[in-house]
């Protein structure tokens, strides 16, 4: 299974895979951070928007939202969920917008899909170019130096008479600018079990390196990876929320 297979052939299962994610709380937290750090504007773009759950919440909160993704089947589901929004098929490493934006978001560690430092830099440059002065670029990230290859997240979900088990975990060799997201999906019905295993190539970066890439263009604020409490990063955790205000 390739990256495209999960987000194309299996796009119909994506929302089931994410059923435990609290999209409302995540979106509320970023709206709040945008109120605190942003410029009062309401134009918003979600990078790697997938099936559009965050776009839905931002529209409901009063934003004029749009979404971008590299896989059309994900965008087709997003367009059904958010008929008022504009969605475009683009690579977040080099994206263009038709007018300056007040807020750009990238949830669920998707910024790591820029699968090397050069593409990550290009994404940061594109975001800076697309934002108004004082606009905010939010994303969440994992520090390559804190990845524990033994940790996996597992959850199960039922749809009709089928049971799904999803596993996902980071893998980093300890060297270089590539890490991967290892995923497995098991679909069990009364007569058969199907298993898909996949490894997605992603950029590996330390928070120190990431901050150095951002600071020429943005004032960078880092928070603990907890959308309910929003507390400053403790300089230790390997997962964090980045709120970057365009200079
Ligand atoms: C883990 S999903 C996250 C989707 C959504 N943000 C969410 O929180 O549910 C990652 C998304 O990134 C998209 N993606 C992967 N590489 C991309 C790229 N280079 N540019 C834009 N989207 C990309 C995939 O198609 C997929 O929809």
UniProtKB/TrEMBL annotation:
UniProt source species: Vreelandella rituensis
A Pfam family recorded for this sequence: Methyltransf_25
GO molecular function: methyltransferase activity
Name used for this protein in its record: Class I SAM-dependent methyltransferase
Domain Methyltransferase: start-end pairs: 45-135
Keywords: Methyltransferase, Transferase
GO-annotated biological processes: methylation
